[in-house]
Amino acid sequence: MNTIKNQKLGRRSIKFDNPPVIIGTASTVGTKEGDGPLSKYFDKILQDDKYGMDTWEQAESKLQKQTCLDALKHLSLKPQDIRYILAGDLLNQCIGAHYSARDIGVPFFGLYGACSTMTESLSLGAALISGGYADKVMCATSSHFCSAEKQFRYPLEYGGQRAPSSQWTVTGAGCAVLSAYGSGPVITHVTTGKIVDYGITDINNMGAAMAPAAVDTMRYHFQDTGFCPTDYDLILTGDLGVIGSDIFTELLLEEGYDIRELHNDCGKMIYDLQKQDVHAGGSGCGCCASVFCGYIYKKLKDGEFDRIFLMATGALMNPAIIQQGESIPAIAHGITIERGKR
Amino acid sequence: MNTIKNQKLGRRSIKFDNPPVIIGTASTVGTKEGDGPLSKYFDKILQDDKYGMDTWEQAESKLQKQTCLDALKHLSLKPQDIRYILAGDLLNQCIGAHYSARDIGVPFFGLYGACSTMTESLSLGAALISGGYADKVMCATSSHFCSAEKQFRYPLEYGGQRAPSSQWTVTGAGCAVLSAYGSGPVITHVTTGKIVDYGITDINNMGAAMAPAAVDTMRYHFQDTGFCPTDYDLILTGDLGVIGSDIFTELLLEEGYDIRELHNDCGKMIYDLQKQDVHAGGSGCGCCASVFCGYIYKKLKDGEFDRIFLMATGALMNPAIIQQGESIPAIAHGITIERGKR
User: Which of A6, A29, A267, A313 has a CB 3.0–4.6 Å from the CB of A33, allowing a cystine?
Assistant: First the structure.
């Protein structure tokens, strides 16, 4: 008989009594992200966004694969030390993750949560470790500006004009290695999102579509866990961008949670919003992945943060269904990360 | 401190000491599947493959949603009784599952494993239950012939000719409700696939691309668990179809496992291969879902099978990357299901 303590909290949250440890990460970004304010924190910056490949799709797949291999290298691990990879990306049928995982050769769970995929992956990865199913797992996501523009909007050659509310898909990837033991920041809680749709139909305003999903998950997180905003040093959303972030903090304020001083957004941090012409900020599942695995992870290790809430947000439509008149459903998955023993 | 027994077996398998119970299922199929040999086992057969909607994508989403709601209804459960939905489908960005889960309103993990998604979903759902994270979860997938043809091959109106080796995407959905307690068939073991690619580039021969992945998972399953073929009453693959099934059983025979008398394939069972003009049989993640949730589940409950191995197989490419010269990566996720207490 197993004697597992009940790890459920409230309606949507989990508390890990043995919190999985994030023992290492790797991050890679493209040229534009390498010119941004977080430049020095990324492990690798591409000189060429095609990464020596013939197509954008191949480049994205290589981006994810090399980032996973870098994470292993940082930890002196081999693929056979890893029980599962949990990974995804934005491309149709998640080919970025599939061609990456094919070459790494580890048992694979494919996930799709659009830009929320990184925290979906960390949520399920942590649950697999704490459940005793794995000693080590890898969680990875990627996105690429050029493959995403081609697939979701227009081919780059078309030179389409971008709306002021649009976000710039990050060319980047992140991989985090979770372990049942070791030292490093730990995942203590998970709050899983449900799909929320406030009827937004403008695919150039993803932030507005995603903000209500982030509010929903944040509210359940506070209710389920008993945490209040000031228990956190940072509440970091995945990529609501400038517009979505304002909606998010305002809606939460209306519900009685003032997180304005604690909140930041990966999509606002990765670019210089004044100089880099990215309109409402960054997006893409490589955004949260590279900012977390590059910048935030190092700040947790350095002791700059004691406890953060990381919540990636995703817009779950595709272009065809929007042309058919549907609105944009969104989701947000959140995890609590503590500094852990040093 | 948790005192979880180590549930890992070998390199890729899990054994559940408290096996999650499949307390109920629902299945829905389209008109062609309703004319097939398993007709009487499906819970619902559509009279109109558009299901009263304007588009194929909307029809598929409704198919998955209604099947999930039917599963709840069979069990007199409400959405709030379910902790998580784990679901996916074949459409770009998995919109079948997203618009379904939006309307059901339960915390959601989006999965993509192409036609392997049903057993990916059952694997992770079982792990969440046995890990103490949930009392009840729903696992669902769908596919639709018309939305799949439009997206992966040609619009129906084009009337393209089909290769003899091609498979027919099943219009169908299945939903299984797993629970920490109750009576019914139980999931005792999970063996997770890694991505295998033997260099097949013919997207009209998915069975050949997927068979080596199925062999790989089957071999690890036998090695990890100590089961031999005769421990099973049925080894049921997801949708290798006619060609893939032959390759699968022959390759396994070369490795010393003779499963020829025990093996069947959902893609061979769902249609009358002589009369229904489906070439190499059925495919799509609704194939395994509807055959398992419709036919197999009832046979487990009736006591016709004591122990089966269910292994859905998926081809993980998209059309663009194949046009770029890549080969087709594939994966197979397997689970052991026992009849359980009656």
Answer: A29
